[in-house]
Amino acid sequence: MENTVNHTSLSSLSGRTAVVTGAASGMGAATARLLAAHGARVALLARREDRLKELAAEIERDGGRAIAVAVDVTDQASVDAGAARVHAELGAADLVVNAAGVMLPNPIDDGRADEWTRMIDTNVTGALRIIRAFTADLVAAAARGDAADLVNISSIGAHALFPGYAVYAATKAALTHLSASLRTEFGPRDVRVTNIEPGLTDTELASHVDNPALGEEGQLGEMFDALGSLSADEIADLVAYVTSRPRHVNLRQIVVLPTRQA
């Protein structure tokens, strides 16, 4: 039988318009850099405008196209203004990556409502705000016969249980379930939804932990030492791979872990 599999390369990313949140560092920055290297126009969204401008300049120096758009995903007005700028400067998006996220572990007994609110607003509601802002773009792209992708960066924390991580894990479980549910709405309209759940990954998240017993000098650091970690570039490689497949192929759920954590 003749092999009819289309071995699509990353070259199919050329000409696409991508929106990447959390683009100031970590997985978001690595993803934006890689998509741009393969010809996508990339809108860099995050709060830290200085870092976004540095990354945009780097991408432009390397021959790519990127714009720095300062956006706080926890603020609806900020998201609306950012989306308007993306549309004005790059046009409609056909690839959206929700990589913005925050991880603030602490025992539930500590009652850190400030951290709970920040994680829920960023990891869940923030992702929803971005989805809302670009859903019409994705649906229109798919209707034209083009590839259209929504990629949500969740976490193995959606399934794996660790003391002190109850609220963080709950937000990531919500994002994973949101991704699954959205396929029932987007799939029939040819918009792909991919949920990626990384395990231990070398990003800034660990540095935000304010509990020494749980942070880089405690539990989390011990896990990195014992199990190793993935790099942000390795997660970016997965995003580029899944979004460059033929448009009828949806790699819907990817769990990626360091081998020793698996």
Keywords:
about 260 residues, alpha/beta, 7 helices, disordered N terminus
Provide a descriptive summary of the structure in words:
This protein has 262 residues and is α/β, with parallel strands linked by helices. Helices cover 43% and strands 16% of the residues. The strands form 2 sheets. Strands 3-2-1-4-5-6-9 form a 7-stranded parallel β-sheet, with helices on both faces. It has a two-stranded parallel sheet with strand order 7-8. β7 (201-202), α6 and β8 form a beta-alpha-beta unit. The N and C termini lie far apart (37 Å). Mean pLDDT is 93; it is low at 1-7.
Low-confidence stretches: 1-7
Mean pLDDT figure: 93
Number of helices: 7
Give helix % range. Answer: 40-55%
Strand content: 15-25%
From the N-terminal CA to the C-terminal CA, the straight-line distance is 37 Å
Shape: globular
The ordered H/E elements are: EHEHEHEHEHEEHEHE
Overall number of strands: 9
Question: What is the CA-atom radius of gyration, in angstroms?
Answer: 18 Å
Strand order of the largest sheet: 3-2-1-4-5-6-9
The largest β sheet comes out as: 7 strands, parallel
Question: What class, by secondary structure content?
Answer: alpha/beta
